[in-house]
Each structure stands twice: as structure tokens, then as C-alpha cells.
């Protein structure tokens, strides 16, 4: 079956059962079957922490928040967070995760990343978008990126990157374990950078765990911010 954005991305996580399974796969501290996903989740958190600490921030948009993977990071920094997702089922679990992490200044809000009109320009210091773009076709990704660039001077976003190694690995996995050979919405690093360039300057890029995952994370500065739309937003590396 070919990839379909409405069915496989927008609609896929919108039920409690899928949300629970996703949460178990990435967040459960136990079990050997989900060990690779747990490892990837740990690497993701580490990468986001490192990048987040390079930008001045007191407020953040976590979109898609999923089931609250980043809660501990924001709690540790005392960041004021809006945790958003298109799926109320995912957000319900995120609420519990944020509470467990001790994050007190957080609001949960169902949102579609293609239209963030409810947020004014420069509403946040940073927007974090983890594990969504590899499930979004390029045209819609551009719309989401424009929105992030409008609402925050800095954005941290992950992309699904396709290399020869990853293509072979996916084909091998499909042959051994079954399941899809479908490449979702992966692209090359060069394509990602071209796509990002109208709205952002790329400050950093880093692989999450290239042997296990196709994810690359980018730290971006909005070109609108450069024009002064965000007032006193500081430079990366300065004290938040
Ligand atoms: C693979 S999960 C990633 C969640 C979280 N960032 C993480 O890393 O665990 C993808 C998430 O994107 C959400 N999503 C899908 N389409 C969306 C859209 N158009 N706007 C906002 N969230 C969306 C899904 O509901 C799901 O929670």
C-alpha cells in the first residue's frame, strides 16, 4: 500500500490504542523488543538537549509532543511549554508524562502543524518538531516550516534522511521481518537543506543514531528573526 499522508500521518495516531503502543515502544523502561526504539529515544533526547542549550529560551512549542518524550528536558530547564499534537489520544498520555516529569508550566493544545494561526508571530523562543517530517510530503513540510519560522526565532526539527545504507537496511528488514519497503517521506541531506533555506539559516545538523535510525536533527534560525521580527532574541550559545 502506498503512503498516504491523511491516513498514515494525520489520522494514524488518532486513537488510544495506537497512542498506547507508541508510548510503550519509545517510553517503556522495560522489555527487550523495544530496546532499539528506547535507545533511539535516548539519543533523540540527548540531541535535543544539546541543541536546546545553544539557544536562548524560556518558552517552547513542543509539536508534535506525541506522548511527552521531551517532558523531562523542559522540566529540567524550567521552560514554559505549549505541548501540541493533532492527536488528542497522544496528548492525553503526554499530559501524564509531563506531570511525572514535574513540568508545571505546560499547556496542552490540539493543533495541526500546517496551520498555527492561533499563535501570534514570535509567540515562542523555540519550536521543537521531532519525528514528524519523515511522514509529511515536501509541499506540506514547507507549509509547516513557514509556520515555525513565523512563531519562533529558533526551530529544532528532525528529518528522515535517505542514504544508500539506510535504503539497503530497510529492504533487508522488510525481507527478514516483513512489513513495508515504503520509503515514507525521506529525502537527502541536500534536499532537506534546500527545503529549509527559504525560511531558515541552518546553524547545526546532527545524526541521531545513524546505524539505527534515519533521523537527522537541524537547529535553525528563522530568517524573519534576522529581520528583527523577534525583538531581543539572543544569539545561540548565550545564556537563556
Ligand atoms: C512519530 S510521532 C512523534 C511524536 C513525538 N514528537 C516523539 O518524538 O515521540 C508523530 C506525531 O505527529 C502527530 N501529527 C501527525 N500529523 C500532524 C499534524 N499535521 N500536526 C500536528 N501533529 C501531527 C501525530 O499525532 C503523532 O503524535
TrEMBL record:
SUPFAM superfamilies per record: S-adenosyl-L-methionine-dependent methyltransferases
InterPro entries per UniProt: Methyltransf_25 (IPR041698), SAM-dependent_MTases_sf (IPR029063)
Residue span, Methyltransferase domain: 61-151
GO molecular function: methyltransferase activity
Alphabetized CDD domains for the sequence: AdoMet_MTases (cd02440)
Pfam families membership: Methyltransf_25
Official protein name in the record: Methyltransferase domain-containing protein
Species the sequence originates in: Rhodanobacter lindaniclasticus
Amino acid at each position: 500500500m502506498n503512503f498516504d499522508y491523511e491516513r498514515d500521518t494525520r489520522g494514524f495516531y488518532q486513537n488510544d490504542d495506537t497512542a498506547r503502543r507508541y508510548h510503550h515502544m519509545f517510553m517503556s523502561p522495560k522489555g527487550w523488543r523495544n530496546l532499539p526504539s528506547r535507545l533511539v529515544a535516548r539519543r533523540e533526547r540527548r540531541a535535543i538537549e544539546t541543541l536546546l542549550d545553544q539557544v536562548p529560551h524560556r518558552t517552547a512549542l513542543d509539536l508534535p509532543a506525541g506522548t511527552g518524550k521531551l517532558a523531562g528536558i523542559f522540566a529540567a530547564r524550567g521552560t514554559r511549554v505549549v505541548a501540541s499534537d493533532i492527536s488528542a489520544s497522544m496528548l492525553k498520555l503526554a499530559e501524564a508524562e509531563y506531570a511525572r516529569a514535574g513540568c508545571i508550566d505546560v499547556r496542552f493544545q490540539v493543533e495541526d502543524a500546517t496551520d498555527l494561526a492561533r499563535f501570534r508571530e514570535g509567540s515562542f523562543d523555540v519550536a521543537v518538531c521531532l519525528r514528524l517530517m519523515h511522514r509529511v510530503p515536501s509541499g506540506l513540510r514547507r507549509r509547516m516550516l513557514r509556520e515555525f519560522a513565523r512563531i519562533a526565532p529558533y526551530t529544532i526539527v528532525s528529518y528522515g534522511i535517505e542514504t544508500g545504507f539506510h535504503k539497503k537496511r530497510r529492504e533487508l528488514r522488510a525481507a527478514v521481518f516483513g512489513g513495508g519497503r515504503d520509503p515514507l517521506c525521506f529525502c537527502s541531506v541536500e534536499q532537506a537543506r534546500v527545503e529549509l533555506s527559504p525560511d531558515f539559516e541552518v546553524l547545526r545538523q546532527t545524526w541521531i543514531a545513524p546505524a539505527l535510525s534515519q533521523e537527522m536533527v537541524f537547529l535553525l534560525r528563522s530568517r524573519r528573526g534576522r529581520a528583527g521580527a523577534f525583538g531581543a532574541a539572543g544569539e545561540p550559545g548565550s545564556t537563556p
